Amino acid sequence: MALSEFDLIERFFVRKNGGNPFIRLGIGDDCALLGFDDSVELAVTTDTMVEGVHFFSGADSEAVGYKALAVNLSDLASMGAEPVCATLALTMPQSDASWLRRFARGFFDLAQVWSVELIGGDTTQGPLTITVQAMGTVPKGEALLRSTARPADLIYVTGYLGDAGLGVKIEQNEVDCSDAAVLNRLHRPEPRVDAGLRLRGVATACIDLSDGLAGDLGHILQASGVGAIIDWDKLPLSDAVRHYIGESRDWELPLRGGDDYELCFTIPASEAAAMERRMADLRYPCACVGVIDRSDGLRVLKDSNRIQFSLQGYEHFS
Ligand code: ADP
Ligand code: MG
């Protein structure tokens, strides 16, 4: 049987720490952390986008260039890191100047927002595949990890959930709707770097939502050895997603839909009010959706029922 994405990483690529003191955190979180002194750590992450898997064939290359960087900055955001630079490995079937012009415009539009400098990469011929590696800095000891959530911490998410999942259904003609805002959320997600910076030293754990809340919160639960209960009625939903769920009864969309690139974080209840005040000037909301407990796994409270929810998010090869 084919191994799933996470099983194969665990089996073939996770090795015993070689003891190099510069490596502060290896495989298993949104970024690795390197440290060369006692003041700053470097957060490093890489993500690949493949035509036909991560974006539709023939997609506007401006959006592809934007998103290739956005998904990496989202991983930096989830660690509380401040973006510094990126590398770009580009594999394309042919060198098409108009495609490249738009791709570069999308990439650098976002790079400019966060002062990210492109410092290198690789260019090759082959099936369209884009790999970006992003690097950012965080004061030593302040990076937000997946493994440090504690029982009784509150669970928060930024923005709205399920928009990107609905966008995929619209693109695949499964849903009759052409809400430009929803499609924009799928094609041009805004990495929540500013939220991540405000959560340094405050959140107990954090992850970005690339594979759906159930799967990604599941990574926090597994890494931290805790469970959680989510109150479905508290999930922040856009009008478009609310309307879609009302018509389809597909209430799992905001829990399972991927590609939202919001942050999910945990915080002690005693710190929540001050954090909410600090987040109040952001352009997007920040909502409490549940609580960490000592149980095993994830339960969802909906219509007075407690539903045991599987932790599986989107996985390649599964
Ligand atoms: P994210 O969704 O935050 O980008 P992933 O779910 O892709 O993270 O990866 C989970 C963890 O496994 C990360 O720490 C990532 O760096 C690591 N990882 C993924 N693929 C490989 C690989 N082929 N070799 C080594 N580490 C990997
Ligand atoms: Mg991530």
Textual characterization of the structure:
The protein is an alpha+beta fold and 318 residues long. The protein has two domains: 18-139, 60s Ribosomal Protein L30, Chain: A (2-Layer Sandwich); 154-309, Alpha-Beta Complex (Phosphoribosyl-aminoimidazole Synthetase, Chain A, domain 2). 33% of the residues lie in helices and 27% in strands. The strands form two sheets. The chain has a seven-stranded mixed β-sheet with strand order 8-10-7-11-9-12-13, with helices on both faces. A hairpin with a 4-residue loop joins strand 2 (32-35) and strand 3. Helix 2 (61-78) runs parallel beside helix 3 (97-113) and helix 2 (61-78) runs parallel beside helix 6. It is globular, with a radius of gyration of 19 Å. The N and C termini lie close together (10 Å). The mean pLDDT is 95. Bound molecules: adenosine-5'-diphosphate (ADP) and magnesium ion. Magnesium ion binds next to helix 2.
